[in-house]
Design a protein that fits this description.
Radius of gyration: 24 Å
Shape: elongated
Structural class: alpha+beta
Distance between the termini: 39 Å
Strand content: 25-35%
Largest sheet: 4 strands, antiparallel
Number of strands: 10
Length: 181
């Protein structure tokens, strides 16, 4: 019962976060994230994040992003080079209210790794926001995902095999004793 309540709670929080993200203004932001299975809100912003890469004139308030829900262990990286100048951040909304990383100056690189499955209040996805800027800049956006499954080394595999063998031996002994009775 406890597990059901906990699962229900987390599902409710994620649905509420998705609804909040959908209600946020996304002016200048695109919807290139992978669609959810039912075709509703985008669910993962990582696959479409590289579509933000471009060359443009940097100005204060210049923004673009991917609408959706960033996934735990996704790492978003934005590198901006000149000859233009400016200051930029990795943000969670088109207005630049939710800041994930930064600011830093052009040329510069910022990275943000998602560690919380529940997005901050006001977040609509992941993108960039220029606080200031002038001239031409080239922005390169990348996203990578680290597997959430831990790896097991040779020692761990050997120990697991030994435990399985001992467990199997105990089970076979119990079955044989039961048959003899």
């Amino acid at each position: 019962m406890k597990r059901y309540l906990l699962s229900t709670f987390f599902t409710s929080v994620l649905v509420a976060g998705g609804a909040l993200a959908a209600s946020q203004p996304t002016t200048g932001w695109n919807n290139a994230a992978s669609p959810a299975p039912n075709g509703s809100l985008p669910r993962n912003t990582c696959p479409g994040f590289s579509s933000l890469s471009s060359t443009f004139t940097a100005t204060a308030g210049k923004t673009d992003g991917i609408v959706g829900l960033p996934q735990v262990n996704d790492t978003y990286t934005i590198s901006v080079s000149g000859p233009g100048t400016g200051s930029f951040r990795i943000v969670g909304d088109g207005a630049g209210v939710v800041t994930y990383a930064g600011p830093t100056s052009v040329p510069g690189t910022l990275s943000y790794t998602v560690s919380n499955p529940v997005p901050p209040v006001g977040a609509a996805g992941v993108g960039f926001y220029f606080d200031s800027g002038s001239g031409t800049v080239t922005l390169t956006a990348t996203c990578s995902t680290v597997s959430q499954l831990p790896s097991i080394n040779t020692w761990g595999m050997s120990l697991m095999a030994l435990l399985l063998a001992v467990g199997g031996g105990v089970a076979l002994t119990a079955v044989n004793k039961r048959r003899q009775s």
